[in-house]
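Thread: quick sanity check before group meeting

JM: Hey all, I'm pulling together slides for Thursday and realized we never actually wrote out the predicted structure for the chain we discussed last week. Dropping the sequence here so it's in one place. If anyone has concerns about the input, flag it before I start.
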Amino acid sequence: MGQEISHSQFTAHDFELFSDCLRHETALLQQWVNEGDFTDKPYQAGFEMEAWLVDEQLKPAAKNHDFLDRLSHPMAVPELARFNFELNGLHRTIEADVFRKMYNELVQTWDRCAEVANEQSVDVMAIGILPTAELVDFTLENMSRMKRYRALNEQVLRMREGRALQFHFEGRETLDFTHPDVMLEAATTSFQIHLRMPLHKAVSLYNAAKIISGPLTAACANSPYFLGHDLWCESRIPVFEQAVQVGQSDLTKRVSFGIRYAQHSIMEVFDSNLARYPIMLPRVFDEPEESLAHLRLHNGTIWRWNRPLVGFDDDGTPHFRLEHRCVPSGPTLVDVIANAAFFYGLVIDIAERDEPMEQLIPFEMARNNFYTCAQYGLNAELMWIENSHYAVKDLLLEELLPMAANGLRRLKVNETEINHWLAIIGQRVETGQTGANWQRKWVSQHGHDMYKLTQAYLDRQKQGDPVYQWSLG
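JM (edit): ok, ran it. Output follows.
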């Protein structure tokens, strides 16, 4: 959950003080890494699911403050826009029936969210990009009240010297326009998958997450429509990258796939944070250096699609977590937990191999695969090991699903759990019916009516069946 700050206006002295704190905390984290002073607990799973509030016309409903007050849930927080909110899951050891427990927890929380929302004549909805959302919805008047969001907008515009944000999309349709603030970031809602990882596996897990980002995005795509235009299968990717853009290259972009794998230490990421990314939110905290408050806040303003995080156990021992940000929210709670199970199995299988897969798949290939899959979904053609060409559907069914099953077996997940959750991915790929493809097929059959599309989607989401079973009638 994002750190709040006490004010949004900063001075040159704030930047200087923050820079000093960031430098000292980065050095301290390096010292802890050198000494191996990190938790050695088993792999743990967690998640953040972003969602929408919609009104009776299925338009964004800017009511998250009243909604969250009534919900009164410690793991529910506001997002950038007043029509978005985020649910955080408990971290659980990956073993036995962990995914069933994650699913039951999410269902219980989601049902309570729906109940509270209905009391306010609105509804909750999990989807990558809401088809009915229009440009007029993304105004500063609809920004949540947290000061960190005001400051974020001000600092992005400061870094851009006041220039409006430029948006350009080439997909099934082409779209070009400018927007005066960062609010279009709120158009993109995700299911962020967290993995607490041991220090000695951090590099291999981080690299593994990059390698699988493309195929996983293809299998999970759920965001074809943005402002009424049919763009990419997972249009969240280019929307988010352009919504807070303050640089033209991956060296300076705040949202990117990165520029290389980690080579020797996960500290390379935090060193690059210090060296390459200007400070965006220089809030100086009155906290011990050991809390790493400034390092964590700075890292929170660099939205890598695969982002390492630093946290602390209850006893104060530090740990690293991997946050995978490529997967969209929805279509159903069953689908998102299946996506998480697939992710965990894949990264563990790859990370535990004797020969590092990053030596077989160059970084540029993994990055190209990611954007190709975001654009074309299950129709993507990929490059894989030894420069082999793969249709992503074949790669998923023939190689990656068996790998994910092996990875989950390494973690002692029950065989019935493995079969249940991975079968949902397998059927989705086999039928070719991701959330994105269902939306497009619905429009092809019923016409370009974003309200009716959204209503049909919401009806099926409430029924709870995985998206591969959704009808078009």
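AS: nice. Residues 12-35 form the longest helix (24 residues). The chain has one domain: 12-466.
JM: adding both to the slides.
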